[in-house]
Write a structure and sequence with these properties.
By secondary structure, this protein is of the alpha+beta class. It is built from 26 helices and 15 strands. A five-stranded mixed sheet has the order 12-11-13-14-15, sandwiched between helices. Strands 1-2-3-4 form a four-stranded antiparallel sheet. The longest helix is centred in the C-terminal third of the chain and has 36 residues. Monomer. Interacts with DnaB.
Length: 675
């Protein structure tokens, strides 16, 4: 629904922003000046010790000078409580006493109809709860006792029981004045086509209400209590209120905890979701017996940027995850993805919690794979690379999958990453074949835990760690030049962020790298970027020397002790740890350009040294002009670099202070700045 700007302005005029924000923060008494409408507090969106979150009541705007969050009354509710924009408008309009315009008559009739059906579903929920606590509910109560569900959980989720009779619910609703067609439309009663009397849809089942995002009961899930009963789980049919492919069980409870934690977990069954909720994991939802749909994916992204899908580790769970992957890929977009956690074989989340507690569940969840990794493993697990045709077939499968991604930036990043991985895979396969033919033992390759030596601290990026081992454990080369680490970091960022390579390819291509290995790696990357549409992974594998893969191995291979969730870029994360926090794209680009500036600055300094050395042998006016021009240029570039470095260091400091909200799963682990 669209809202007129005048209506929105009226709502904001009647409600002070400081009152809305003040429910979630404590104002800093020293900086706040209420008389001027000037309020300061510690930011509710990230962790900080000194207040940098500012509310201007006169303008009706807020801004955090630490993390950059900003907005108005409505944005604050959508960002702190997970409300949609229309929901935020409705809530604030009610608080402000502003009457919202009447919707289109047809839409208004539909809403009244839905409200009536929701009332009937609420009556049914009350009936099932009553039966659960009555004499006929003994079997259901015994079942939930075996499941170790607490009284608090049973009350919160409003567990009920549908008697094993033909029309108990039907008669109850009729006594409340509900007409039979309405019962049928609500999915509670079935009307046979052959003229027989209608009867209750749910009979002899443990009943669990399903709520919409507003918290209204709109449907039910029923679990049979008969060991031989089929189906084991029965959901309400599609109704004007309930669409299985759109809804998520427990979403209305999970929304705020998910926003606060920055995480969301997705499980297959609602009893699994309830077990996790009872164990203290409140940001959990469940699908309703269907494969992921685009609507569900988009709803999950409202809860968290990278929800963790927790499926059983058996064949059925893996198959369900693979179906989910195919549904997710087309709607991937920048900053949003999924992670996949496969639980130990034979266990569902409820089993895992009973065996190992919530800590055991978190241990398994910490092993979750990024979507990229799940796709890669799925496709190569059964791949055969013994002929050129089979290599081409594998590459074609990846191309077809990635081609379904609508977001151009994400699609291009996936294309480059997979192209590099495939070329490395083909290279390793050929190398092992050559080694076998020569009677040599197989060496460990990329992703197989090869020997990775430790290096020394780097250069201007003071915290960088130098890795100097190749795919088979052989030394790459001793570092050459004071900016060896920065050059390697630029190489890694070009692979991790191909959009930066695309955007600045001319400048990257002409960088004066001091290390010839880096220059060769850069040249190969630029070739891939420029000839992307005509260059296959096999051609890339054949067209570069071993040193390319040695550097690629360091950049992309997961290192021992690195968090699994960071996937294959642990070498890069060690050099630039702040990347673990997924900083804003503009910060990443600014850091990347600063590293380019450093390399160019060093080359300029070397050029000046050469000119000064040459001037000692032959000094004339032409030499003087060259030296003066280089000196002025160098002075200007040094000032620019120093300013950039200060700005980046300040931003990095604020990003580090963001804590768990910026680095999920890493607590308050410090991430060093680029310098």
């Amino acid at each position: 629904m669209r809202f007129d700007n005048r209506l929105l302005d009226e709502i904001k005029a009647r409600l002070s922003l400081s009152d809305i924000v003040g429910r979630r923060v404590s104002w800093d008494r020293r900086k706040t000046q209420p008389g001027r409408g000037d309020f300061w507090a510690c930011c509710p969106f990230h962790q900080e010790k000194s207040p940098s979150f500012h509310v201007d009541d006169r303008r009706g705007r807020y801004k955090c000078f630490g993390c950059g969050a900003s907005g108005d009354h409505f944005r604050f509710l959508t960002d702190t409580e997970g409300l949609s924009f229309p929901e935020a408008v409705e809530r604030l309009a009610e608080q402000a006493g502003v009457v919202l315009p009447v919707a289109d008559p047809k839409i208004a009739r539909q809403e009244r109809k839905k409200a009536g059906l929701a009332e009937v579903c609420e009556m049914a929920a009350q009936f099932f709860q009553m039966e659960f606590g009555g004499p006929r509910g003994q079997t259901a109560r015994a079942y939930v006792q075996r499941r170790q569900l607490s009284a608090e959980t049973l009350n919160e989720f409003r567990f009920g029981f549908a008697p094993d009779t033909r029309d108990s619910l039907k008669r109850y609703l009729a006594e409340k004045g509900v007409e039979e067609p309405v019962m049928v439309e609500a999915g509670l009663v079935i009307k046979p086509d052959d003229g027989r009397p209608s009867y209750d849809r749910f009979r002899g089942r443990l009943m669990i209400p399903i709520h919409d995002e507003r918290g209204r009961v709109v449907a039910f899930g029923g679990r049979t209590l008969d060991p031989e009963g089929q189906p084991k789980y029965l959901n309400s049919p599609e109704t004007p209120l309930f669409h299985k492919g759109v809804m998520l069980f427990n979403a209305h409870r999970a929304r705020e905890p998910a926003f606060k934690s920055g995480q969301a977990f997705v499980v297959e069954g609602y009893l699994d979701a309830i077990a996790l909720w009872q164990a203290g994991l409140r940001h959990v939802v469940a699908t309703l017996g269907t494969a992921f749909t685009e609507d569900q994916v988009l709803r999950l992204w409202k809860l968290a940027a990278e929800p963790v899908v927790c499926f059983d580790g058996d064949a059925a769970g893996i198959s369900a995850a693979h179906r989910a992957i195919d549904r997710i890929l087309p709607v991937l977009r920048s900053g949003h993805s999924f992670q996949f956690c496969f639980l130990p074989d034979g266990q569902d989340p409820d089993d895992l919690i009973k065996a190992r507690g919530i800590a055991g569940f978190h241990e398994e969840a910490a092993k979750a794979q990024p979507l990229f990794e799940a796709v890669w493993e799925r496709e190569i697990s059964a791949a055969n690379l013994d002929t050129p045709e089979r290599k081409a077939a594998l590459e074609k499968r990846f191309e077809d999958l990635i081609g379904t991604i609508a977001d151009e930036r994400v699609r291009k990043r996936y294309q480059l990453d997979f192209r590099l991985r495939l070329s490395n895979l083909f290279y390793e396969h050929s190398r092992r074949q050559r080694s076998a033919a020569q009677g040599q033992g197989q060496r460990q390759g990329w992703g197989q835990g090869g020997d990775r030596g430790r290096g020394r601290p780097g250069d201007a990026a003071a915290s960088l760690q130098l890795l100097t081992r190749g795919p088979g454990g052989e030394a790459i080369t001793a570092p050459q030049g004071p900016l060896f680490g920065t050059e390697r970091l630029v190489c890694g960022m070009c692979v991790k962020f191909p959009d930066l390579l695309d955007k600045h390819i001319e400048r990257v291509a002409s960088l004066p790298f001091a290390d010839p290995l880096h220059a060769g790696f850069r040249n190969a990357l630029c070739r891939v970027a420029r000839d992307f549409n005509s260059l296959t992974a096999a051609q890339l594998a054949e067209g570069v020397d071993d040193s390319f893969y040695k550097i690629l191995h360091e950049v992309m291979t997961a290192d021992e002790g690195a968090a699994q969730k960071h996937g294959d870029f642990s070498g890069l994360y060690q050099r630039f740890p702040l990347l673990k926090a997924t900083p804003p794209e503009d910060f990443i680009e600014a850091a990347f350009l600063h590293f380019l500036d450093q390399i160019e600055l060093m080359a300029l300094e070397q050029e000046l040294k050469q000119e000064l050395a040459a001037a000692e042998q032959a000094f004339d006016e032409l030499a003087w002009n060259r030296i003066r021009g280089l000196t002025q240029d160098l002075s200007r570039r040094r000032e620019e670099c120093a300013r950039e470095e200060g700005e980046l260091a300040e931003r990095a400091k604020k990003l580090r202070h963001a804590g768990p909200s910026m680095v999920p799963g890493h607590g308050n682990q410090a991430a060093s700045s680029p310098h």
